[in-house]
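FORM 12-B: Structure-to-Sequence Request
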């Protein structure tokens, strides 16, 4: 199936470059282009594209406003272009909250010199976004399906899950769709919650601070970007810095290390989960949320072998279910919950 793409940007040069890149692929084609948000809304309704690539700063109507209208009138999977600045991060987070599936750094200044690399990155993102699911309401049918998935999962286990009241550390991994999912989960937890939470979200380095600040402002918990030597024994929510790896020492201190070129993900859910398994925490809960790929599977397997608890987000509540599905398919999930339920289930632990 050919992916139909609508591209939106007020730069005629970039429109042309992006169009050439997309049309050079066998599995996608540009069906339209717009130079502002108003045109984007009109063409989205007329052309019904599979994916829209959306700039954020345009005349007449900006990208965020356009995303909101499109998601209301004709919900479409949207890839947002973003600048790697603090302001760009805030705008991108606004776009994700408005309904955009994912974002891509708008670093096209050297497009003519690095076209091959840009082509691969852009087209892979478009393919990922095309496969994403539209947000669904939490219907009774979906809840029944989630419960069925949970029951089907636990019947495959012979080990007995640990007493949930004993959990003393929570580690949550996420990727595509994660910023919105994490906000939902944390917003459901009161400030009386005492178990420390580690968050490993695939995200550029320049975005993590803005993301942590936003979560801290909007939820009752104390949220911060993790720093070297932070003591998680004191509680709170610690977000792994983008472009680096967050490890936990045996005593419960955060250790921040450079990502390393060989690592696919920086931060890596697998690495953080694995380091948690070597810490002094006796009863760890690892939660894998929406995301592309299988990061977290190896780390979860290690935790599982040591008797720790593993949860996965249900496929029908994910934007992209690759990461949690890898946990479920490997028989690692003790529980599978709809996104709407995860925060409340975490509250039951404290």
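FORM 12-B RESPONSE
SEQUENCE OUT:
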């Amino acid at each position: 199936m050919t992916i139909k793409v609508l591209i939106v940007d007020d730069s005629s040069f970039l429109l042309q470059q992006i169009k050439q890149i997309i049309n050079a692929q066998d599995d996608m084609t540009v069906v339209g282009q717009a130079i502002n948000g108003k045109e984007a809304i009109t063409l989205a309704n007329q052309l019904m594209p599979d994916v829209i690539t959306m700039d954020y700063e345009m005349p007449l109507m900006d990208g965020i406003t356009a995303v909101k209208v499109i998601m209301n009138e004709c919900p479409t999977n949207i890839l947002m272009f973003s600048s790697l600045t603090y302001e760009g991060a805030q705008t991108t987070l606004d776009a994700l909250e408005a309904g955009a599936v994912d974002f891509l750094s708008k670093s096209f200044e050297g497009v003519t010199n690095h076209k091959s690399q840009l082509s691969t990155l852009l087209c892979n993102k478009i393919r990922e976004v095309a496969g994403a699911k539209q947000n669904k309401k939490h219907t009774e049918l979906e809840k029944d399906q989630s419960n069925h998935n949970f029951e089907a999962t636990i019947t495959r286990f012979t080990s007995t899950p640990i007493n949930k009241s004993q959990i003393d550390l929570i580690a949550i991994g996420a990727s595509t769709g994660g910023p919105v999912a994490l906000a939902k989960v944390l917003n459901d937890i009161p400030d009386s919650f005492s178990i420390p939470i580690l968050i490993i979200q695939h995200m550029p380095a320049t975005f993590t601070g803005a993301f942590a600040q936003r979560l801290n402002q909007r939820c009752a918990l104390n949220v911060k970007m993790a720093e070297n030597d932070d003591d998680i024994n004191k509680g709170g929510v610690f977000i792994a810095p983008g472009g680096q790896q967050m490890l936990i020492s045996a005593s419960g201190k955060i250790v921040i290390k450079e990502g390393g070129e060989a690592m696919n993900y920086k931060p890596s859910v697998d690495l953080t989960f694995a380091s948690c398994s070597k810490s002094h925490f006796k009863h760890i809960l690892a939660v894998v949320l929406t995301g592309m790929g299988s990061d977290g599977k190896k780390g979860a397997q290690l935790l599982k072998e040591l008797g720790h608890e593993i949860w996965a987000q249900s496929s029908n509540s994910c934007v992209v279910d690759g990461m949690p599905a890898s946990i479920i398919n490997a028989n690692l999930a003790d529980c599978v919950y709809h996104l709407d339920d995860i925060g409340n289930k975490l509250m039951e632990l404290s």
